[in-house]
Write a structure and sequence with these properties.
Strand content: under 5%
Distance between the termini: 89 Å
CATH superfamily of the largest domain: Cytochrome C biogenesis protein
Structural class: mainly alpha
CATH class of the largest domain: Mainly Alpha
CATH topology of the largest domain: Helicase, Ruva Protein, domain 3
Number of strands: 0
């Protein structure tokens, strides 16, 4: 039996088997609300797992936040209202993608600023390497000869 095709099939199907942490008792009856809840949950950081969304985390806090998101949606809150509520309780850090606000301008602008500064530095070095040395004038050559002659005498 050849394992190559079997292994290839397994590796192709493996991404489909990724399980989310949402348990069946958390799922809402309304598919549209559930889709919104999953969308919001994918944007919120698990405060226990750090760089994992609450949708993917198995932590108790993530479960509580998923339930909170669903409860707020059932109560009629918009996506933005739910996110604002969670941010008001846990701070901006709870967002996996920070908002563009005066508090986060440096966070968003730093990569562009570093690229521009790096380009300026590279340009300056390339210009410095391209400019050929100018030849010495006759006065400079005479002065150099004099200094070299004085140096040999010592």
């Amino acid at each position: 039996m050849r394992l190559g095709p079997l292994l290839a099939t397994f590796l192709l199907l493996l991404p489909l088997a990724v399980a989310h942490a949402v348990t069946p008792d958390e799922v809402l009856d309304d598919p549209a609300l559930e889709a919104r809840a999953r969308e919001i949950s994918a944007e919120l950081r698990c405060m226990v797992c750090q760089n994992q969304s609450i949708d993917d985390s198995n932590a108790d806090l993530a479960r509580d936040l998923r339930l909170l998101v669903r409860a707020r949606l059932v109560d009629g809150d918009s996506n933005e209202e739910v996110i604002d509520y969670v941010v008001s309780r846990y701070g901006e850090f709870v967002l996996l993608k920070p908002r563009f606000s005066p508090k986060t301008w440096l966070l968003w602008g730093a990569p562009a600023l570093l690229i521009v500064l790096g380009g300026i530095v590279l340009w300056r070095f390339s210009v410095a390497r391209r400019t050929p040395d100018r030849p010495l004038s006759q006065a400079e050559e005479a002065r150099l000869e004099q200094l070299l002659a004085d140096g040999e005498d010592n």
